[in-house]
């Protein structure tokens, strides 16, 4: 495969950014996200009921899997895998003891999983899963994997010769409980938190090892309040299907949300998953009815929204009612809202986002968002 370089042009906040996106690792999208959880059956019920995910596949004792059980859920193009261990000494059990429930695998859909492994390992990636083929009566899956920040890994999935429900070893999962979907379409981006001084290391990893490019950088002047701050680099692959912002804490008077995450997760990891919808008012209102808790946005936030973002199609009173924030860039505007952590530890949470042309990440909402997070930190006694 020729190591050609394509140049992508992005316009962001009035500044044109020229990015080199190398074509040695073409990625078609996110294949699935696997969370290690303490009780996969109960977690699956939560994601079905509260977030509208649908049953897809199951693997466990009944399917011949002896060391773990996994439930696979789907909504739109999003696949979540929830996995719990049986073995008290397994890697999964150790992961749970250290981190609590959290993202272990960010699986990427590729055309050639063997080549993806060779390309990335030759560029310095640490192997996680050596290339292998797994098969059943529905065909063959080829896969491989590499380590990234903390205990998080990327698994490359090649599935053009497979017609099964998910992966070999899984069977179709169906019950009588079928709650309605809530309008989630695809994963917009996934954010990783790393230690102070490590953001450049991992942004370089994505650039040099995986052929990503830096879409935009935020420093502590962009993302800060009186008390806390962070810095971030948004990394994207060549076609823009995969976006990985990398956060690190910045110095502040008090403990930032990134430091709190690192303390309770006991190291770097995936901070949040941003999922896209075409109707954020519907999605958020339905989730609230099912008990999903969102960060509080003070009513004063909406006093100058029209001056800041201009004309929008949505009813501002409805956005205020549901706590949905708005921001605009040169391409359009976006609407976004953030859940509170979905585990007992203040670690993983979800962002619900609707893009109306905007390619940015809600820079105009950072102040209000941080103040809301700090209020939650204060309640937890971790600020």
Describe the structure.
With 383 residues, the chain is α+β, with helices and mostly antiparallel strands. The protein has nine helices and 19 strands. It has a nine-stranded mixed sheet with strand order 8-9-10-7-3-6-5-4-11. Strands 13-14-15-12-16-19-18-17 form an eight-stranded mixed sheet, with helices on both faces. It has a two-stranded antiparallel sheet with strand order 1-2. The longest helix is centred in the C-terminal third of the chain and has 15 residues. The protein is globular.
User: Widest sheet: strand order?
Assistant: 8-9-10-7-3-6-5-4-11
The total of beta strands comes to 19
Rg measurement, Å = 20 Å
Helix coverage percent:
10-25%
Main sheet: strands, sense, barrel: 9 strands, mixed
Index terms:
single chain, 383 residues, alpha+beta, 9-stranded mixed sheet, 8-stranded mixed sheet, 19 strands, disordered N terminus
Report a brief summary of the structure:
By secondary structure, this protein is of the alpha+beta class. Helices cover 23% and strands 38% of the residues.
Chain-wise SSE layout:
Blueprint (H helix, E strand, L loop, with lengths): L4 E8 L2 E8 L4 E10 L3 H12 L2 E6 L8 E8 L2 E8 L5 H9 L2 E9 L2 H10 L4 E10 L2 E9 L5 E6 L12 E2 L11 E10 L5 H10 L4 E6 L10 E8 L6 E8 L6 H9 L3 E9 L2 H10 L15 H5 L6 H7 L2 E5 L2 E7 L10 E8 L9 H15 L3
Parallel strand pairs: 3-6, 7-10, 12-15, 16-19
Antiparallel strand pairs: 1-2, 3-7, 4-5, 4-11, 5-6, 8-9, 9-10, 12-16, 13-14, 14-15, 17-18, 18-19
